[in-house]
Design brief:
Length: about 850
């Protein structure tokens, strides 16, 4: 075979892969991602023009070809070419002095340049040219010389074709092949990653590496596999976080097998660094697109079914309406709810969405007493008043199917609540009402503005000021509960503290205390609130948890913070300023016996923190809560097989996509229930989903046990029994009181389930209702006489240590944690002590 023909026959033409998939991925990436499309083609890789400073006859020789030629000592001896410059790690050659071969240089150069007229050079011409070079060289001979040459089409882009030549073996010394190579590989960083991947994929000669360099390379790949940035970016092409390490490992194996010298040396020059990761990543992307189409497809399906971006599109009917949103924005006790309710009552029909059952009941009573028929819908209770067109409900229960003239969503700032926020977001996005009044503090005003611009609803803002300013009493109680006065509400953040305070006040003063805390049924809370509000009895002090903090109208003269720290489920933290304001705002309500509100602390130490909180402006909320509907979870479940419901929720949490204005609400408690219900076979996905939302205290084993029992009976198609006796009488000690609380929770859970599942399966609703009323009454009676030391709900929990400052009169002075935090901010105190978990 003629030498030229032999060379030509060995030229391989590597056509580009179909670019469609890559472009698709890039599109997805941009849609998904954080902006700048980091694996697009670099401008440098497009710039293949001549350096204007070079002689017009000079042509760049492709880097790899230049490397080979130099390495083989061809250029310096060639009659045709000489190196005139090295710019940007690229050799520029000109015809040599002999002068007659300029044409060859042009041909050679145009091979690199894509032809002077942009039409490229045929490979045979290049082969010819190479042959002529070879004739003059010593060791670039025939087939051996040409074996490492490939002709690469750059994928049909508008860029020129380019000659590539894969570098040969390293010289064995562990060093680079030559200094020319050093110059050459530096250009790798500016090359198109798509080309780099092709070079890598098609590489047949792998660079030998010294042990040190091999180690560096391993480190670089470890960095890639462990890079949170890369793992996050890989989501853009639907490489999931869990699959990413596998993909990265396979990429490493692939690279190790190929290891073209220029890319390898360039990588090693970067070392194990973020730069190396960012260089490798787009090549890794190309690899993944080619190697893992099935995984990508699967993950893409999963991601798309967990897409929580654009939640405003979830409610097409509401979107078809032109709704008017009126934001009643202001601090506590400024008339927000009052004004919204005026419109609610004037309307032909309306819905009021409350954050609490108790507040829904309050509105239900008030509206009916004013002659507007109104029904009540809470998770546990449905009171349908005949002829009513109005309904007061808890926000979780509001229907997005009914059409209303006026809707009120109270305490709209709860959209940012980590657990329940989704219910407010859903109501705002989905309510089909011509006019929606939202009441709340200014913290979510900007979010509501943004949502309205997404939904196309009209927004009107009404700003309010507090009727009367809240006054801080500088004197405080000086750490002595004997300084409590009539009309005081002492706020503590655990059930235990509430009872300790009540006990101490009743023992050392003539006041009698009512109590309100989270574990009490709303009926009992209302009974206690009425007892306190009523003038004609001895109950003139209220001891309460933050359960009094929202919207309730009580006759409170002064709010006294017993402590300003609370357990957040993990550790003791200062009560957030927004909550302090909300609670303090209970004092001095318009129309009450005490229109001028006062607030103070039990300890002088806490006063500063209280003042700080009250002065603090409302912090702007940047994200509000979301949670998927059952249908979304179901769609997601179709993408996964053989996973438990708990795992499904976990996977959903990992893979769901949200835009920057939303967060996925915390659902640890739901997962706990889901986990427990794994023991119950035969529940459909929807059943599991509904059971998981039942109101159960996951920290109370008795309540959990009853939920398990209900679910088991339900799964066996048996009528679900309450299977719990009515308590004999009111509580005589704290254990009995706790038992009453639990029993009420269980009955309440039964009622909730009866409203969320087929009625026939929960046939004892009437019995449950009677029990709920009875137990709430017993609780009320018990609280009236309660004068015992509180117990812990959790069996076996270690008792809190005796505190050093124990007063002889039987109650412990709480340590001022707010003060401790403030000192810690100034680095004066090392650690905040852990404290007992809240049981409210
Ligand atoms: N215009 C009014 N006329 C008579 N009473 C009013 C008026 N506005 C408000 N009130 C009364 O003032 C009290 C506080 O009003 P409202 O409950 O509307 O305050 P709010 O701003 O919603 O407070 P919060 O943030 O605590 O919910 C209520 O008892 C309410 O009935
Ligand atoms: Mg209100």
């Amino acid at each position: 075979m003629a030498r030229g023909a032999a060379a030509a026959s060995l030229l391989r033409i590597c056509r580009s892969r179909d670019n469609g998939s890559r472009n698709g991925a890039l599109l997805s990436y941009r849609r998904f991602g954080s902006g700048s499309g980091q694996f697009g083609r670099s401008a440098a890789s497009r710039d293949r023009g001549l350096d204007p400073n070079l002689d017009a006859r000079c042509r760049p020789v492709s880097r790899s070809l230049g490397q080979l030629l130099l390495r083989k000592n061809l250029l310096c001896r060639s009659p045709y070419f000489r190196v005139v410059s090295a710019v940007d790690a690229r050799l520029y050659c000109s015809s040599a002095d002999k002068g007659k071969d300029l044409e060859d240089a042009r041909v050679f150069g145009s091979g690199v340049m894509g032809g002077e007229n942009g039409d490229g050079v045929e490979s045979s011409k290049f082969a010819e040219c190479l042959d002529r070079l070879a004739e003059d060289g010593d060791d670039l001979k025939g087939e051996n010389a040409c074996e490492s040459i490939s002709f690469v089409d750059n994928g049909g882009s508008d860029e020129s074709e380019e000659w590539h030549m894969v570098m040969g073996e390293e010289d064995g010394s562990g060093g680079s092949v030559s200094s020319t190579v050093d110059v050459a590989y530096k250009n790798v960083g500016s090359r198109d990653p798509v080309d780099l991947y092709r070079e890598l994929r098609d590489s047949e000669e792998r660079a030998n590496l010294s042990r040190d360099k091999w180690k560096i390379l391993q480190e670089i790949f470890r960095c890639l596999a462990e890079s949170p940035w890369a793992s996050n970016q890989a989501l853009a092409i639907y490489i999931g976080m869990s699959f990413f390490p596998t993909a990265a490992r396979k990429f490493q194996t692939f690279f190790s097998k190929k290891r073209p010298a220029d890319i390898t040396m360039y990588l090693i020059s970067l070392g194990p660094s973020q730069e190396a990761v960012k260089f490798l990543f787009p090549i890794f992307v190309e690899f993944c697109l080619e190697e893992f189409p099935d995984e990508i497809k699967r993950f893409r399906g999963m991601i798309e079914s967990a897409d929580l971006t654009k939640p405003h599109t979830w409610f097409p009917f509401a979107r078809a309406m032109k709704r008017k949103i009126i934001y009643h924005c202001g601090p506590t006790n400024s008339g927000k709810t009052y004004n919204a309710l005026q419109r609610f009552m004037e309307a032909k029909n309306g819905v009021y969405c409350s954050p609490l059952r108790l507040l829904a009941m309050e509105v239900f009573d008030k509206v009916n007493s004013l002659g507007v028929y109104c029904s009540l819908h809470t998770g546990q209770e449905k009171k349908n008043v005949p002829f009513s067109n109005h309904v007061a409900c808890t926000v979780e229960m509001v229907s997005t199917d009914h059409l209303y003239d006026v809707a009120v969503i109270d305490e709209i700032q709860m959209m940012a609540d980590p657990y329940r926020g989704y219910a407010w977001t859903r109501a705002l996005l989905g309510l089909k009402a011509d006019e929606i009044h939202v009441c709340g503090d200014p913290s979510v005003l900007n979010m509501v503005r943004k949502i309205c611009s997404d939904t196309g609803d009209e927004l009107q803002e009404c700003h309010y000021d507090r009727f009367k300013p809240l006054v801080v009493e500088a004197k405080t109680l000086l750490g002595d509960l004997r300084n409590v006065r009539s009309g005081d509400c002492v706020v503590a953040f655990s059930r235990r503290e509430i009872f300790e305070v009540k006990l101490a006040i009743e023992k050392h003063t003539n006041h009698r205390c009512c109590v309100i805390y989270g574990a009490l049924p709303p009926e009992t809370r209302r009974q206690q609130a009425n007892l306190f509000n009523d003038q004609d009895n001895e109950y003139d002090v209220l001891v309460a948890s933050d359960a009094v903090g929202m919207g309730l109208n009580l006759n409170i003269r002064r709010v006294v913070f017993y402590t300003l720290s609370k357990y957040n489920g993990d550790k003791m933290v200062p009560v957030p300023a927004s909550q302090v304001k909300q609670i303090a705002g209970r004092a001095g309500r318009r129309g009450s016996r005490y229109p001028d509100g006062l607030t103070t602390t039990f300890e002088l130490n806490d006063l500063e923190y209280l003042i700080e909180c009250l002065k603090e402006p409302f912090e702007e909320v940047k994200k509000v809560g979301l949670f998927p509907f059952f249908e979304q979870v179901e769609l997601f479940a179709c993408q996964l097989s053989n996973v438990t419901f708990c795992k499904l929720l976990e996977k959903f949490g990992e893979n769901c996509r949200l835009d920057g204005s939303y967060f996925l609400c915390r659902h640890d408690h739901i997962k706990k229930v889901a986990n427990m219900l794994e023991k119950v076979p035969g529940l459909s996905l929807e059943d599991r989903f509904n059971f998981c939302f039942a109101p159960v205290n996951v920290r109370d084993p008795k309540s959990m046990y009853h939920l398990l029992r209900f679910a088991t009976a339900y799964s066996q198609n048996l009528p679900v029994n309450i299977a719990m006796g009515m308590p004999k009488g009111s509580a005589r000690n704290d254990a009995e009181l706790l038992d009453l609380e639990t029993k009420h929770q269980v009955v309440s859970m039964y009622l909730w389930l009866s409203h969320h599942f087929e009625e026939e399966t929960f046939p004892y609703v009437k019995k449950a209702e009677a029990m709920a009323t009875g137990i709430a009454e017993l609780l009320g009676q018990s609280l009236k006489v309660a004068n015992w030391k509180p117990e812990s709900r959790q069996a076996g929990k270690p008792k809190p240590k005796e505190k050093p400052e124990q007063k002889e009169d039987g109650y412990e002075r709480p340590q001022s944690l707010a003060k401790l935090f403030s000192l810690r901010r100034q680095n004066k105190v090392p650690e905040i002590p852990h404290a007992e978990k809240l049981s409210t």
